[in-house]
Structures are given as C-alpha cells and as structure tokens.
Amino acid sequence: MELQRPSSLAEAGEGLFLHGGTEVVPLLRDGILRADRLVDVRGIVPAGVRGSVIGAGTSLAELESASGIPDALREACRLAASPQLRNMGSIGGNLLQSTRCWYWRLRYPCRLHGGDRCHARDGEHREHAIFANDFCASAHPSDVAAALVALGARLRT
User: 65-87 pLDDT, tens per residue?
Assistant: First the structure.
C-alpha cells in the first residue's frame, strides 16, 4: 500500500483520503475498505474555527474547547470519543464515519452491500434507527452530526 502526503488538493490524485485515520485504519484492518493508495490530507484540508465556519480538518478536541462554539456542539464533541481520539479525529472524519451496523461490517448481503434486504430490521436491531428505516435501519454513528442538524448547520462540499 502506498501513502501519499500531497501539498495541495490538486496534487492529491486518486486514493482513499484520510486525516486522523481513526475511522479509515480500522476499516482497512478489518477488510471493510480496500485501497492501494492512501492520501494523507492533514496538511491540505482547512482546519480551525473562523467565525461560524469550521474547517473539516478541525479536531474534535479543538472544537470542544473553542470559544464561540454552541454548547450542544461542544458537548457532542466531548461525548464523541476518548480524549486520544478527539485529539486525532477531525470533524470532517467524524461526519464521514461508516455505520456501526454489525451486519454491514460482517459483510452480510444487506442493501448497503447490494443485497435485497436489511438484516437489522428482522434481526438484532436494538442500536439501529427506529425512524426512516424503510431501506436500511443502520443509524449514523456521529454525535456531532446530530448536534449540527439540531443547530441548523450547513455543509459546504
């Protein structure tokens, strides 16, 4: 596997992007993600808080302690992970987390893997979504996403 550390987004090219790696590395290790090339975007993704704009590369620890951040978002950052993961993990990575659904992670032929059903709807599902789950009952794992939705935040891509 190749690791690239580009100095600009234009230089990044193709590959699996990672910032802190707290989500990507375990998924690679478990064989859920596959990549021939990793692109470390830590040096090129905007970080920090400027007014109401939060850079995708801003660590959860930085958001938790930044002034001017709404209490709901600060608490969501604090609850999101251990201190070590909050220091490494970025808000962008937190929002892009993969589902924690064990059916998906164990590669059952569910709808997210191209299958014709959601195994969680009929099987073990106590930690899955109870609303808007017609297609898939997996819930998004991000505490930060819920806080941002409640605050009416908008994402720019």
Answer: 999 999 999 999 999 999 999 99
